[in-house]
């Protein structure tokens, strides 16, 4: 242990993700174990700037492990992106005698955290939370598994109606510029086609694939569309495909923010418990600006600068699998 930390602050920032509450519970209870006081900052960096923090006791995080969202609230702060905003944030942490912070969030959150550490030297440990699973330094982010399950459940339901009407369905899932959510959803729901940001594909390629399916007597089709794919949004693709391949009646479903809500899966609760605990232990071990992640089932520390700069690659074997099974 390098230094005795007495007072730490924890916050959630960026898009919420199922399992954030379980992560907060682990942070608060592990802090109690190490006899540190922990303060919850409300509304992410916005709350840090405004000094909106409150001491959290172990009972404050009871009965939240199973809840989606984040009881501390979250925000995408524009003010923290300014020098003035970060200065105010530092002053408010100093005023409250905060020794270190734990940030639960995604790439934007950690980009801000890394800059803040460089400017003001406040130790800050990141816990990866995003349904997009797009963070380097962890095999999985908190919330991803739940979002995949939510999307799969939705696709299963759409499958019933698609099959009953022999329809072509374009189903758009979130993921920003990454295709993890789309690819995992496509494989787990047995969808015939998937459009990913990581794979170059044209409308003509898609038409050829659909023609192939049709020759194989496929009477309905499910196409999972990652929101960041290079062709465009699901409604636009559906329109254009209709003009080129008018064999099926076509419909569009955008799952949207449904994927961000709901009770976290068992996997996400376990991951959040491990990483929340790991974040406090990282501070105890003297880490100052790292992200805790799970790599091959083990807790790993990745410098925030590396976590935010590197791109996590999609598993090409999974893409191959999706294509092989979608016949
Ligand atoms: O990063 C999580 C995410 O849900 C993305 O998949 C999506 O592109 C984005 O956030 C939506 O953000 P907002 O809720 O701010 O519209």
List keywords for this structure.
327 residues; alpha/beta; Rossmann fold; 2 domains; seven-stranded mixed sheet; four-stranded parallel sheet; 11 helices; 43% helix; binds 6-O-phosphono-beta-D-fructofuranose
Q: What do these coordinates show?
A:
The chain is an alpha/beta fold and 327 residues long. It has two domains: 7-143 and 264-309, Rossmann fold, CATH 3.40.50; 144-260, 3-Layer(aba) Sandwich (Rossmann fold). 43% of the residues lie in helices and 19% in strands. It contains eleven helices and eleven strands. It has helices spanning 20-33, 44-50, 83-95, 107-120, 144-165, 180-189, 203-215, 234-244, 266-284, 304-309, 316-325, and strands at 7-12, 37-41, 53-56, 100-105, 124-128, 167-173, 193-195, 221-226, 249-254, 289-295, 298-303. Strands 3-2-1-4-5-10-11 form a seven-stranded mixed sheet, sandwiched between helices. A four-stranded parallel sheet has the order 7-8-6-9, sandwiched between helices. Strand 4, helix 4 (107-120) and strand 5 form a beta-alpha-beta unit. Helix 2 (44-50) crosses helix 3 (83-95), helix 5 packs across helix 6 and helix 6 packs parallel to helix 11 (316-325). The N and C termini lie far apart (56 Å). The model has no long low-confidence stretch (mean pLDDT 96). 6-O-phosphono-beta-D-fructofuranose binds at residues 15, 106, 130-132, 174-176, 227, 260. 6-O-phosphono-beta-D-fructofuranose (F6P) binds next to loops.
């Amino acid at each position: 242990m390098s230094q005795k930390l007495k007072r730490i602050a924890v916050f959630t920032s960026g898009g919420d993700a199922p399992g954030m509450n379980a992560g907060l519970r682990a942070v608060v209870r592990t802090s109690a174990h190490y006899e540190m006081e922990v303060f919850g900052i409300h509304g992410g960096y916005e709350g840090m700037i405004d000094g909106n923090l409150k001491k959290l006791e172990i009972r404050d995080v009871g009965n939240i492990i199973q809840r989606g969202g984040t009881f501390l609230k979250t925000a995408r702060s524009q003010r923290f992106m300014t020098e003035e905003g970060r200065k105010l944030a530092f002053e408010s942490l100093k005023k409250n005698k905060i020794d270190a912070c734990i940030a639960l969030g995604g790439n934007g959150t950690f980009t801000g955290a890394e800059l803040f550490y460089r400017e003001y030297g406040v130790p800050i440990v990141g816990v990866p939370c995003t349904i997009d699973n797009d963070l380097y330094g962890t095999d999985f982010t908190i919330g991803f598994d739940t979002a995949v399950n939510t999307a799969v459940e939705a696709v299963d339901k759409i499958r019933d109606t698609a099959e009953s009407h022999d329809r072509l369905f374009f189903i758009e899932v979130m993921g920003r510029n990454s295709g993890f959510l789309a690819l995992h959803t496509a494989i787990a729901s047995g969808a015939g086609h998937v459009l990913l940001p990581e794979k170059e594909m044209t409308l003509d390629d898609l038409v050829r694939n659909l023609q192939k399916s049709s020759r194989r007597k496929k009477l309905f089709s499910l196409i999972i569309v990652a929101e960041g794919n290079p062709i465009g949004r699901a409604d636009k693709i559906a329109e254009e495909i209709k003009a080129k391949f008018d064999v099926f009646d076509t419909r569009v479903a955008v799952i949207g923010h449904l994927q961000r809500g709901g009770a976290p899966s068992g996997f996400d609760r376990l991951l959040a418990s491990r990483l929340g605990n790991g974040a406090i232990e990282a501070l105890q071990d003297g880490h100052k600006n790292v992200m805790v992640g799970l790599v091959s089932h083990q807790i790993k520390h990745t410098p925030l600068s590396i976590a935010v700069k590197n791109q996590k690659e999609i598993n090409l074997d999974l893409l191959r699998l999706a294509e092989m099974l979608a016949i």
